[in-house]
Write a structure and sequence with these properties.
177 residues, alpha+beta, Nucleotide Exchange Factor Grpe, Chain A, domain 2, three-stranded mixed beta sheet, 6 strands, rod-shaped
Amino acid sequence: MSKKDEKNNPSKEEAEENKQQELTEESEAIVIETDEESEAQKKIDEYKDIAQRLQAEFDNYRKRNNESVRVARNEGIDDVICSMLGILDNFERGIAAVEDERAKSGMELIYKQMLALLSKFDVVEIEALGKEFDPKFHHAIAQCEDKEKSNIIVEVYQKGYKRKDKVLRASMVKVAQ
């Protein structure tokens, strides 16, 4: 073979060496791609974790905010109802004092409307007369001697009201001792 042919036709060793070098370069390219993919996957996982945490924090914020709004609304309703209770007491006194039947029936209609409104908001009168004294619901302002009815309410000076499980105003009562 001439020298010219040797240059154009590489030997088996050279061909094997070239092939090996190509494989090495391809392996290095694959390793670099794998490292880039690995780092990209880490970034994806990191951003996914951040997004999940933000979503959970927002859900918790929304729940806390809804609860705060519900509590504030209920407290506002309680305050308005407590303000109305004095008016309700005055209507009861007025109905008892009015002698004109037409005026009395008009006042009774308004009184019934007020009771219906209170009922709509789950307000109920605290039963007291003839019941056992309970300091959670009753406020004793007077006592009388009666051995047979010990710790029993014998007179109600002012009605008490509660809304759901909350006492809005305790009943003012006289208790037998």
